[in-house]
Design brief:
Largest sheet: 3 strands, antiparallel
Number of helices: 5
Mean pLDDT: 81
Low-confidence stretches: 156-165
Strand content: 5-15%
Oligomer: single chain
Strand order of the largest sheet: 1-2-3
Structural class: mainly alpha
Helix content: 55-70%
């Protein structure tokens, strides 16, 4: 697996009966620089999603699949509503509900990590992009080669092997 030692170490820790909890302390915040390009960002996300088939923690697998299927089903329902207009109201209501759930999580987190009001103005636009991205990137991760530290890994339905390139 090209990366993921941190995630798999955490899963092993939990497997041994230890509990994992969020620490509500300012000192626990880790600041990380964002990816410097869209390509780097997408390759990073493809690498992250390529680890999911290797999860052995039932709860991690369950929540990963639940998270993905919610996004994918909402996207499919939204696209279907363009063809079958009788689904437009249901699609719209579910998307508004999803938006409200997401913004409430962001709001709860913003009380802990201070978020400037300027970022709130962009939330609806970023949410739309993020919503579509979360529906597509896992599929791309199953068939796209993963590149990490100048090594290319071929991923196909969770089977990874090191390529000669």
């Amino acid at each position: 697996i090209p990366s993921g030692d941190d995630v798999f170490l955490l899963h092993e820790y939990m497997k041994q009966g230890n509990k994992v909890r969020f620490i509500f302390e300012k000192g626990s915040i880790v600041l990380v620089n964002p990816a410097n390009s869209w390509k780097t960002f997408l390759l990073q996300r493809l690498r992250w999603v390529s680890k999911v088939p290797h999860y052995r923690q039932i709860t991690a697998m369950f929540y990963s699949w639940l998270f993905y299927l919610v996004h994918l089903s909402l996207l499919v329902l939204f696209l279907i509503s363009f063809i079958y207009s009788e689904h437009t109201l249901l699609s719209s209501l579910l998307l508004v509900l999803k938006f409200l759930v997401d913004i409430s999580f962001l709001f709860a987190g913003s009380r802990f990590i201070k978020i400037s009001w300027k970022y709130w103005l962009f939330f609806p636009f970023v949410w739309l992009i993020y919503f579509v991205y979360l529906s597509i990137i896992p599929i791309a991760g199953m068939v796209t080669p993963v590149v990490w530290k100048n090594r290319k890994w071929r991923t196909l339905y969770g089977k990874e092997k090191r390529s000669k390139n």
